[in-house]
Each structure stands twice: as structure tokens, then as C-alpha cells.
Write a structure and sequence with these properties.
With 332 residues, this protein is mainly α. It contains 14 helices and five strands.
């Protein structure tokens, strides 16, 4: 089938194992988009240095991440998979975009404020300009769509601003990219205690990873936060209950979801039964991905080859963009 002409790009940091948030916020869309658009997906290893200064596990994390991406549906013959650090055009574009990004807006970025709070001893300049590097990732392929979860929305908005500023000042080089999801709106998967989003490196018992064994999945789901149930019909669900229903809607059948919605609305829900069902459906969904990823991980040479081939394609696209950028800026 002919693909659409628009370019799609997205990335992920190699800072831990993939979880359900990464899958439903990003990878599920990537796996579908690869057949419809020209797609670039990359490992954001430079970005990981802003929070993870120790690089000893970078290589093994990259191998395991690429294995999980492929096990989760990416086909390296259909889309381009590469490591950010293989594309030197990205830091050149990052440099130009840094002149169009202002201290005030960078300091106001939600992710910057969060990370600065978490690591007050290491508020480095890379952390402050993180959204500028992300904009360079996106604009270096002159991308149109960026499939991401809800937490990345502000970064995409900033990328749009930087692209518009560049085009306005130097002449149009970049399409103004849009955040993308096949669902209505960008997805946010909550942690199992409902207090925030699932994340790679925190709250391991409140996060379900694609590498989790069956009994661990069951254990995590069974201890997820619930309460004694709604006290009046058609109540609003608290966040931690809403989160479980979201998971049910993503991995269980429409009948199962409808049954528990109905039970909730009629105040007869038994959360223990609902969680047992959810655990069974999650295991059915995760097990094949986990097993495929484990097999791929045993062959790092094959992953290296995929990344080398991806880097070559990505460099071609990036260097074509940079020659337009340099021309627009008045460099030779
Ligand atoms: P990262 O590595 O934190 O996450 C990768 C992708 O997973 C999504 N995601 C979630 N979606 C829904 N619910 C959650 N709980 C959840 N947790 C993570 C993220 O939205 C993301 O789509 N800054 C990016 C990496 C990046 C990037 C880029 C992305 C660097 N350059 C250029 C797009 C384009 C990040 O930290 O993602």
C-alpha cells in the first residue's frame, strides 16, 4: 500500500523498561502509523543524560528498549529505528533553535519544574533546554505528526512555537508539527495508586512493565488501590478506580468492560472480581510481547545492525533538512 507523504517522528528515553503508559501512550500508535506514514522512531539517549548521568547501562538499556519496541509491534523493515546519538545534525539544529528559545518559557515548562524539584542538586542546562533538543529531534526530519502521550503535549506545543519562529525569521523550512493519537485526545495511563502517571523509573509496584512475569502482574493488580465501592448510583469514579477502568477498556473485551461499568453504576461492583479479570486480560496481552522481547535481546548484534541501518536512513533525511536550514540562515 502507498504510504501517506507526511512524516512521523517519535522517541523514547532509554531510562528503564517499557510500561503500559509507554505502550498505550506511544508504541501502539507507532505500530499502526508505520504502515500509513513515513516513520522515524528513535532512542533518546542524549535526553537521558539530563537525569541519568551514569552511562554504564546505556548500551544494555538501548538493546533492551529496541527489543521491546520490536516485540511491541515496530517492524524495522517498515519504519526507521535509530539512536539519537548517531545523528550529529540534531545538535547542530539544537544550537540554532536555542537562539529562538527564551529562558522564561523554558523555566515555566512543567517537566523542567518537576525534574528540578526531584534533582535540586543537578539542575543542569541540558534539563532547562530539554524541550529545545526535543524540538530538534522532531524538526530535523521536517515531521508533521508526533505520536506521544499526554505528558509530552507541552513539549510539542513548544516545538510548534520554535518552528513558527524559525519560519517567520528565516523563511519557511519546517512544517508545524502536531501531537497525534488515534484515540480521542492524547492518552495518560495512571499509576496503580492513582496518584500520578505510570513512569519508567519510579513506583515499581504501581507500574506494570511489559517485562513483568505473570504472577507479578497479578500481584500488582490485586494490590492496586480500591475502596468499598460507590455509595450512590452513577457516581463519579475516583482517579484510582478510573485508572483500572481505563486498563480494562484497553485490554479486556467490550462485554467485560460493559459488565463492570454497569456494576459500578448500580453500586454492586466487586473490585476483587474485576481485578482478577483485569489481571488475566493483562497477562494475555503482555506475555507474547515479553517473550518476543526476551528472545530478541539475546541477539544484540542483530539490534546493532537495525540501529546502524536506521541511522543511515535518518542521517540522509537530517542532512537534507540541515542544508535547507543553513541556506535559510545564510550559511553556505
Ligand atoms: P518518555 O521516554 O518519557 O516516554 C515515551 C513515550 O511514552 C509516553 N508515556 C505515557 N503515555 C501515557 N501514559 C503514561 N503514563 C506515559 N508515560 C510515558 C510519553 O508520552 C512518550 O510518548 N521527551 C520524551 C522523549 C523524546 C521525544 C522526542 C518524544 C525525546 N525527543 C521527540 C517525541 C518526539 C520522553 O521523555 O518520553
Amino acid at each position: 500500500m502507498e504510504k501517506n507523504k507526511e512524516i512521523v517522528l517519535s522517541g523514547i528515553r532509554p531510562t528503564g523498561f517499557l510500561h503500559l503508559g509507554n505502550y498505550f501512550g506511544a508504541l501502539q500508535n507507532w505500530a499502526r502509523m508505520q504502515y500509513e506514514y513515513e516513520c522515524y522512531f528513535f532512542i533518546a539517549d542524549w535526553h537521558s543524560l539530563t537525569t541519568h548521568a551514569d552511562t554504564r547501562e546505556l548500551r544494555s538499556n538501548t538493546i533492551s528498549l529496541v527489543s521491546e519496541l520490536i516485540a511491541g509491534g515496530l517492524d524495522p523493515d517498515v519504519c526507521t529505528i535509530y539512536a539519537q546519538s548517531d545523528i550529529l545534525e540534531i545538535p547542530e539544529l539544537y544550537l540554532y533553535l536555542n537562539m529562538l528559545a527564551y529562558k522564561g518559557e523554558l523555566e515555566k515548562t512543567v517537566t523542567f519544574k518537576e525534574k528540578a524539584r526531584k534533582q535540586p542538586e543537578n539542575i543542569n542546562a541540558g534539563l532547562l533546554t530539554y524541550p529545545v533538543l526535543q524540538a530538534a529531534d522532531i524538526l530535523v526530519h521536517r515531521s508533521h505528526f508526533v505520536p506521544v502521550g499526554k505528558d509530552q503535549e507541552q513539549h510539542i506545543e513548544m516545538t510548534r512555537n520554535f518552528a513558527e519562529r524559525f519560519n517567520h525569521r528565516y523563511g519557511t523550512v519546517f512544517p508545524v508539527p502536531k501531537a497525534f493519537s488515534y484515540s480521542d485526545g492524547l492518552i495518560k495511563i495512571l499509576s496503580l495508586d492513582g496518584t500520578g502517571k505510570m513512569s519508567k523509573s519510579e513506583q515499581q509496584m504501581n507500574t506494570i512493565y511489559l517485562k513483568d512475569e505473570d504472577d507479578l502482574i497479578t500481584k500488582k493488580i490485586m494490590r492496586a488501590k480500591t475502596d468499598q465501592g460507590p455509595q450512590s448510583p452513577n457516581s463519579k469514579k475516583p482517579d484510582y478506580i478510573e485508572g483500572l477502568f481505563t486498563l480494562l477498556s484497553l485490554v479486556s473485551s467490550a462485554e467485560v468492560l460493559a459488565k463492570y461499568e454497569d456494576d459500578f453504576n448500580h453500586c454492586r461492583i466487586r473490585y476483587g472480581d474485576m481485578k482478577k479479570q483485569l489481571a488475566i486480560d493483562l497477562i494475555r496481552f503482555i506475555k507474547p510481547i515479553r517473550e518476543k522481547a526476551a528472545a530478541l535481546q539475546n541477539d544484540p548484534a542483530q539490534i546493532d545492525e537495525i540501529l546502524a541501518k536506521g541511522a543511515e536512513k535518518a542521517r540522509k533525511s537530517a542532512s537534507a533538512t540541515l542544508s535547507e536550514v543553513r541556506k535559510a540562515l545564510g550559511f553556505k
